[in-house]
Amino acid sequence: MADQKSGFLNGHFLIAMPGLFDPNFSMTVVCIFKHTESGAVGIVVNRAHTYLSGKDIFDELEIKSISASESIPVFLGGPVHIGEVFVLHGPPFKWKGCIKITPSLALSNTRDILESIAMGNGPKAFTIYIGCAGWGKSQLESEITKNFWLTCPVSENIIFDISVETRWEKALKSLGIDPAFLSNIAGHA
């Protein structure tokens, strides 16, 4: 959950500005699940993996699955820990290692949630990611002051109900910003 007094962005989206040309983050929306003085960690929520599906994940981990679960899409959560699987999900929050992000959103990356998803018994709302995004001490704060990112509270609707291709635009519009009017040149008022 966001800690307004500390300035940490737990439970917030980072929305990439057009001037952020890093190919890992250009036009991305990142759900921050951990932000402390030591750094920040999040999941890019709008990058579909071009060929991986649930079947590939379950086969790799030798998890028994039902055919309906094999076509679950997999997303690229970021360039860090690319060999790890992360699940953003709604309730229930009973999974081992479950990290609550907001009262209605959590992150898990343990086998029990993947086994449940594979058998069709997982959370009602979830998305599966390979990798995550990370920033070292003061790195994210520096990028924000350079106008690389906009921030707003996380929206489960954008993560679970909006097509991956339109999540960046919808996140900007949630702030009242029309992407057509954004410049790729940073400035300060």
How would you explain this protein's 3D organization?
The structure is a single chain. The protein has 189 residues and is α+β, with helices and mostly antiparallel strands. It starts with 11 loop residues before the first strand and ends in a 15-residue tail after the last helix. The protein is globular. It has 5 helices and 10 strands, in the order ββββαββββαβαβαα. 38% of the residues are buried. Strands 1, 2, 3, 4, 5, 6, 7, 8, 9 and 10 form a 10-stranded mixed sheet that branches.
The oligomeric state is single chain
Gross morphology is globular
Strand content: 25-35%
Q: How much helical structure, as a percent, in the residues?
A: 10-25%
- Major β-sheet profile: 10 strands, mixed
CATH superfamily: VC0467-like
CATH architecture: 3-Layer(aba) Sandwich
CATH class category name: Alpha Beta
Going by helix content, strand content and strand pairing, the class is alpha+beta
Task: Round the Cα radius of gyration to an integer and report it.
Answer: 16 Å
Distance between the termini: 30 Å
| Low-confidence sequence ranges | none
Question: Element order, helices and strands?
Answer: EEEEHEEEEHEHEHH
Total count of strands: 10
Q: In CATH terms, what is the fold-level topology?
A: VC0467-like
Overall pLDDT confidence:
92
Structural domain count: 1
**How many alpha or pi helices?**
5
